[in-house]
Amino acid sequence: MAKRASFVAVAEEIGASPAFISKRIAILENVLNVSLLHRTTRRVSITEDGERIYEWAQHILNDVNQMLDELSELRQEPQGKIRITSSFGFGRKFVAPAYLARNPMPKSINELPSHACLVIKERDHPFGIWKLQNSTGTQSVKVTGPMSSNHVEIIHQWCLDGHGITLRSYWDVRENIKSGALIHILPEYYQPANIWAVYVTRLAISARIRVTVEFLERYFQEHYLEQKDDFQTR
């Protein structure tokens, strides 16, 4: 409930009825003698006491998961859930054939300011500044366009619809490149990106985390880091 804020959503997730979820929460509230949720006809939100209990519950579940990790380490059989949070990376410039049908192909990054560029608004990056590298070093270019968003998937769709040029990681658009829906332009310029696996120190002995990191390492090496005609790893 803390994440979904909906009896129906929680019920669907665990395969129960909303009435069952409501009853279980009522029992928990009675046992703890606190109100866990604010209930109105329109929405459900967690109370301050509910937030505190949720945090304690997370600590308890993490401790249980650590115990299972240590046991699974002894058995060499990873068990439990893995939660992965990832940022969206940048890298190379892509455009749809429909856009190039109406506009000339850029020959250098100095021509990008005269094109409609689809800019992603990010908190830690200057808006509209693309820093790109080539064999001679790093260059910055100020790009603009009629459309911008802080949502990666919206920018992606706008690019597919032919509204402009975007700067994305190859793995975001790999299938679009293969199908011909997008074209990789100015391939000599790129934005480097490192992939890091960061996890809580005390879980470093976790068999499930070790197996997950090893899988991701193999996956990226096999699917994205090999030399390709339209993509090169720097």
From TrEMBL:
PROSITE patterns: HTH_LYSR (PS50931). Residues 1-47 form the HTH lysR-type domain. One of its GO terms (molecular function) is DNA-binding transcription factor activity. It comes from Xenorhabdus cabanillasii. It comes from the Bacteria. Keywords: DNA-binding, Transcription, Transcription regulation. GO terms for biological process: DNA-templated transcription. Belongs to the LysR transcriptional regulatory family. This is Regulatory helix-turn-helix LysR family protein.
